[in-house]
Amino acid sequence: MQLKNTLWAVFALLSAALWAPQANAIPAFARQVGMACSACHYQHFPVLNSFGRAFKEGGYTMVGAQEKIEDTTAPGVSIPAVLNAALVGYIADTKTNGPTATAGTAKTSNDNSLQIPQQVSLFLAGRAGEHTGFEAEINLTPGTGGTIPDGSIGLIRFKVPFVYDVGNVKAGLVPFSTGLGAADSFEVLNTGAVAVHTFNQSDSAVVSAQQYIGTATAASGLAFIASNDNFFANFAKWGANQGAGTSGSPTSNYLRAAWTTSLIPGFDSAIGFQAWTGTSGLDNGGVNPMVLTDTKATAIDAQMMGDVGGLPLLLIASYANAPASDVTTPGVNQNLFNASGLSKKSFNIGAELGVIPGVATVQLGMRRANSGGYVDAATAASGNATDNAILIGATYNFALNIRGEVTYAKSSGSMYNAANAAAAGAAYTGTNFTMIDLAFGF
User: Fold this and answer.
1) 20 to 30 Å CA-CA from 425: which of 44, 329, 415, 432?
2) What is the DSSP string of 204-223?
3) Which domain holds residue 219?
4) CATH number for 242
């Protein structure tokens, strides 16, 4: 009954919003290029279109009508006259169907969770020179009790791409530090290779195999990149840490390559692969020596974007695998993406259709996965627990920079049997997930 009432409330809200005036989006990059967010994004932010890919591949250096400060005397300077900034965040209400809290225990999303805000980030980004850009994201989300505890304000992402034209190829170097994984050093597809590019971020693990196996981990290092209209590639040397004093040597490897030529006439298509290899020193709570951890995973993914019957459609598919850890003892070369003794793998598909182009979309997602955990956690019986899910969602753009979203996901498989639920205890969130949120970028 609660879900039914919630969905009716959302329907009423969206119906009333059909009369809401539209406005242009104004985040940091839009200010720099002097264009609405729709110039770079497909249907809504953060999904990138071909122009958005080109802007990113150019190292964030493109400038529109915005005034620049320039000096052609070597080595010179070429920067925007103002520092471009943006606030991006979410307000969310979440409900899961696991057991509700009993007296004296902490409340969870099983009891309903209203978060105002769920997350707020400050972005400073744009052009730093003719061949250099930058992006910095700083977390501003309040902590427990309405205060911001020490250490909770911190750098989520930071990168400085140096990009040059080499014939018809853009090539360069990207020093980076991020909490979203080595793939975040440079990525332009919308398949979930990086979480911030998925069309649904409320439960991205349903639509993205890479997010399901957990590749969004702390990472810092150097990425060597190349791209043109037909492809992009990224090879990064990285370490599994983020922040001063804990980064260690960049001894892990990340390889990404994708073909971006249109495979089907009328559709912006791409297909690619990813590989994480090597071993990294993992921060041991600031205590030396660092713990060695393997960084092993592979993925393949594809996307198609184009109009069907006059309506914009995005299709994505991905498969990812994180092999089992050779040793399952904590601190002894576990796989960063899968600490279990069984392989963790997932096949995911997703679709988003613009039912009112530029205004409203509907979303579908499906996951078929093996969790890497045992079927029966109580008896440790052999068998790789299945973890399947379906997702339906909808979005409505109140303005190009303000979006309402509703997501419902239902999970199934042996991972959710009675023994595993009992073993999880108060952490068990059930099989149903519902979220209503408001995303904004100012």
Assistant:
1) 329
2) HHHH-HHHHHT----EEEEE
3) 2-70+83-441
4) 2.40.160.10
